Amino acid sequence: MDHGLALLLSARSIGITIRADGENLALRGNLEAPLAAGAVEAIKANKHVVLNTIRALPGRLRQGQTWLVAAHKQLGEGASRADTETFGDRLDLWDKLDGLIVPRVCPIGPGGCDEQAPVICRSCGEE
Ligand SMILES: [Zn+2]
After folding, report:
1. Left, alpha or beta for 25 (phi > 0: left; psi -120 to 50: alpha)?
2. How do strand 24-28 and strand 17-21 relate by DSSP bridges?
3. What is the pLDDT of residues 20-51, one digit of tens each?
4. Would you say the pTM of this structure is higher than 0.85?
5. Cα 115 to chain center, whole Å?
6. Cα 57 to middle of ligand 1, angstroms
7. Among 16, 54, 77, 85, which is least packed by CB within 10 angstroms?
8. How many domains would you assign to the chain?
9. Residue 16: Cβ within 10 Å count
């Protein structure tokens, strides 16, 4: 996992959401919480890495959904445990990345998520 993603996920795990605001980061949540100070400091020190990670999220999610759709079709009864675990890990990661999209929109685009996909985004899931 890359550094920007690790920072975003750790911030999210303590209730801080981060979105790109032009060349800046907009942080929301309880920034006064005991664990927040260190997380906020790390994020500010790595602002450009975090910004690039946020900007790359929709592309990663589009690619990931394409991969998951194809892999899901191939996962039959003969699937190995390793293949099944890889699929599960990527499914979990996809869901975590989707949770980082702020404000909430479908990362896939105007047509929305692939209905064949084993996982869809929170935005399409709410419709
Ligand atoms: Zn969607």
Report:
1. beta
2. antiparallel
3. 999 999 999 989 888 899 999 999 999 999 99
4. yes
5. 19
6. 13
7. 77
8. 1
9. 20
- Separation of CA 68 and ligand 1 centre (Å): 14
**For residue 32, how far is its CA from the centre of ligand 1 (angstroms)?**
33
Q: 102 C-alpha vs ligand 1 centroid, how far in Å?
A: 13
State the residue range of the domain holding 119. 3-125
Q: Which two tokens stand for residue 6?
A: 């690790």
* pLDDT confidence of residue 6: 96
pLDDT at 127 over 80: no
DSSP labels for 4-61?
Answer: HHHHHHHHHHTT-EEEEETTEEEEES-TTSTTHHHHHHHHHHTHHHHHHHHHHHHHHH
Convert the pLDDT of each residue in 57-67 to its tens digit: 999 999 999 99
Q: Rounded to the nearest whole angstrom, what is the distance from the C-alpha of residue 41 to the centroid of ligand 1? A: 32
